[in-house]
Amino acid sequence: MISVYLLDDHPLVLEGVRHALDTESDMKVVGEESDPLRACEALPTLRPDVLVVDLQMESVPGLEVVRYVAREIPSTRVVVLSMHDELPYVWEAMRTGARAYVLKCAGREELLQAVRAVMAGTRYLSPPLSDGRVDAYSQRAWCSASIDPLDILTRREREVLRYAATGMTNAEIAATMGIGVRTVETHRASALHKLDLQSQTDLVRFAISKGIVPLP
């Protein structure tokens, strides 16, 4: 029996995934949570075979949960469930420790296939995200001499970075982009992590060096 834990901050998604898995004779949902912090408290005790986690949550980025599980509970295989099909998202998730990446637009059978694949020790990617495309992107991303650091950012992360480098607050960026403040915080934190930037000063220097913002 494959034990599965679910983490997503959308109740309807949790309900749908739970129903899809619980109807299978070889799978059992042993827990679910909408709060990443509470999930990280429960996971070390439950130690499920598989964690199905949303990549983008309001309070804590899904990547941070993936990183935590890979470090603290390596026996738990991570299946990322995401609406994003851009290669930077996929590459970062797999690099951080995910074993599978399933698009939210996928059908029930695809999620089941992903869970069984990671239990068998293999990687799984939704069909639009071929192994060849992701591996090619990975090779480029690891070769720092041949790739612009901006290429590892998603479109939204680049937008947030550009606005943040001009000194705009998260609230101002959210209003300009028409998204939530927490979403801005998530994109900003993810961009800083990917670029290994520690402060606003580092961010401004990087943005100037890349021509994202002009010299003051």
Question: What does this molecule look like?
Answer:
This protein starts with a strand and ends in a 7-residue tail after the last helix. 52% of the residues lie in helices and 14% in strands. A 6-stranded parallel β-sheet has the order 2-1-3-4-5-6, sandwiched between helices. Helix 7 crosses helix 10. It has 2 domains: 2-137, Rossmann fold (3-Layer(aba) Sandwich), CATH 3.40.50; 149-207, Orthogonal Bundle (Arc Repressor Mutant, subunit A), CATH 1.10.10. The chain has 10 helices and 6 strands, in the order E-H-E-H-E-H-E-H-E-H-E-H-H-H-H-H. Helix 4 links the parallel strand 4 (77-82) and strand 5 (100-103). With 216 residues, it is an alpha/beta fold.
How would the blueprint of this fold be written?
Layout lengths: L1 E6 L3 H12 L4 E7 L2 H11 L3 E5 L7 H11 L4 E6 L4 H10 L3 E4 L4 H12 L4 E2 L5 H12 L12 H11 L4 H8 L3 H15 L4 H10 L7
Parallel strand pairs: 1-2, 1-3, 3-4, 4-5, 5-6
Helix pairs in contact: 2-3, 4-6, 7-9, 7-10, 8-9
Biggest sheet architecture: 6 strands, parallel
The CATH class of the largest domain: Alpha Beta
CATH architecture of the largest domain: 3-Layer(aba) Sandwich
For the residues shown, what is the average pLDDT? 84
Query: Which class best fits the helix and strand makeup?
Result: alpha/beta
Residue ranges: pLDDT <50 for 5 or more in a row? 142-146
- Hey, roughly how much beta strand do the residues contain? 5-15%
